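Hey, I was hoping to borrow your eyes for a little while. I've dropped the whole record in just underneath, so have a look:

——
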Amino acid sequence: MNDVLTGLLDLVQSVDPLLRTLLAGLAMVLETSVLLGLVVPGDTVAIVSATAVASPLEGVLLVAALVVGSLVGESVGFALGRHFGPAIRHSRLGRRLGEANWARAEAYLARRGGIAVFISRFLPVLHSLIPLTVGTSPMRYRTFLTWTTPACLLWATAYVSVGAAAAGSYRELADQLHHAGYVFVGIVAAFLVLVLVVKKVVHRREARHMGHGDGRPPEDDAHL
């Protein structure tokens, strides 16, 4: 296992650091703007890129690239929603996503306002739909950025930290421990399980609230 994992990590690290960082940022632009995240999750892009981080500076630059890429992509998604929202929703791709998911995103945004933008960064499907949905809502772009920026920063920092720590720990132990590969897999798996559990809890909590309603009016973020 060590030989295979070392080969994969070396392959990622063999890419020029600047190019690797720019590609990660570009991947996030596509992931958050044109629904590519439904096929290639940004989580995968972040962790794979982070395994090649060789210094604190590279880590900071990767986080910055992921955040900027996410914000650019989400801004494009917002603009597309503002100008072409209904057309995208009723397009072939929009129909494949399912009317239920679009309705869920609308209800979530209407009930939670800006908080929905923040939380959606950590939820599958909703994350890809929320920028488009916000674009069709009264929420201002400035308000949208105010909520999504810290979410993107928190998300990128967490994934880069875990990916870099897992790869670093493996490289330190690879020559001494025959099963060092399991250390890498264990760290990444434990993190992903934690993320999955949190996503499930949040999803069920929000689904329950949206299903029963709480009698409160939605948060008014349109005038912030």
